[in-house]
UniProtKB/TrEMBL annotation:
Lineage: Archaea, Methanobacteriati, Methanobacteriota, Stenosarchaea group, Halobacteria
Cofactor(s) for this UniProt protein: [4Fe-4S] cluster
Organism: Natronobacterium lacisalsi AJ5
SMART domains, per database record: ENDO3c
Gene behind the chain: nth
Catalytic activity: Hydrolyzes mismatched double-stranded DNA and polynucleotides, releasing free thymine; 2'-deoxyribonucleotide-(2'-deoxyribose 5'-phosphate)-2'-deoxyribonucleotide-DNA = a 3'-end 2'-deoxyribonucleotide-(2,3-dehydro-2,3-deoxyribose 5'-phosphate)-DNA + a 5'-end 5'-phospho-2'-deoxyribonucleoside-DNA + H(+)
UniProt name for this protein: Endonuclease III
Described function: DNA repair enzyme that has both DNA N-glycosylase activity and AP-lyase activity. The DNA N-glycosylase activity releases various damaged pyrimidines from DNA by cleaving the N-glycosidic bond, leaving an AP (apurinic/apyrimidinic) site. The AP-lyase activity cleaves the phosphodiester bond 3' to the AP site by a beta-elimination, leaving a 3'-terminal unsaturated sugar and a product with a terminal 5'-phosphate.
Cofactor note: Binds 1 [4Fe-4S] cluster.
């Protein structure tokens, strides 16, 4: 078991410094070339890997070129174009009604405020944060996905369980200039080393400050269960 820094803010800063050295080019892995494509890619990525989303959007974004294109096709056709994605039927419905609202209420443009974004179908705070950060250069919060959720708990940065509560806690301890990058660093480390089922603690640069480190900690603080 590693020994965390004295305060959570110090722990957060140390984690960021070390992960930045490990993953200097860390950034979003979804592919898109405009805000609507970003919004759609993020809606599709819920409970689905970015890799699979990128494979599917390669042909999707060639066929559909704006919100009207998504609204005009029958929902079955759009769903069939997404059928390698988890919950593709629901997501086709979300995309169509989000595009309808974009056309009717926002002049065809993806909105740039948290309130307007979260009113769109299929868009929660996490999706809205990604679109604001990468589509509009507005950083209002921290994107808490499954990797951020798991690593923050394992590293003793929070004991909260719900993503919204974790986000609030992280916003109090992660320096504001790192709110965006913190997510990407957690995702890269979560994919490479600190995986959900079998983290490689012996190869981890955070081992000496991680209270979940498998060496002699009995408990995975992410789940609260024994390793
Ligand atoms: S890989 Fe192990 S030591 Fe590293 S952050 Fe995850 S649980 Fe902690």
């Amino acid at each position: 078991m590693g020994t965390p820094r004295e305060t959570r803010a110090e722990q957060a800063e140390e984690v960021i410094e070390r992960l930045e050295a490990e993953y200097p080019d860390s950034t979003i892995s979804l592919r898109y070339s405009n805000r609507l494509e970003l919004l759609i890619a993020v809606i599709l990525s819920a409970q689905c890997t970015d890799e699979r989303v990128n494979r599917e959007t390669e042909h999707l974004f060639e066929k559909y070129d704006g919100p009207a294109d998504y609204v005009e096709v029958p929902q079955d056709e759009l769903a069939a174009d997404l059928d390698s994605i988890t919950y593709y039927n629901n997501k086709a419905g979300y995309i169509q009604s989000a595009c309808e609202a974009i056309l009717e209420d926002h002049g065809g443009e993806v909105p740039d405020t948290m309130d307007e974004l979260t009113e769109l179908s299929g868009v929660g705070r996490k999706t809205a944060n990604v679109v604001l950060q990468h589509g509009h250069d507005v950083v209002e919060g921290i994107v808490v996905d499954t990797h951020v959720q798991r690593l923050s708990r394992r590293l003793g940065l929070t004991e909260e369980k719900r993503p919204e509560a974790i986000e609030q806690e992280l916003m109090g301890i992660v320096p504001e200039g790192y709110w965006q990058q913190f997510t990407h660093l957690c995702i890269d480390h979560g994919r490479a080393i600190c995986t959900a089922r079998n983290p490689d603690c012996s190869g981890c640069v955070l081992a000496d400050i991680c209270p979940s480190e498998k060496g002699d900690s009995d408990v995975d603080l992410a789940s609260g269960e024994p390793w």
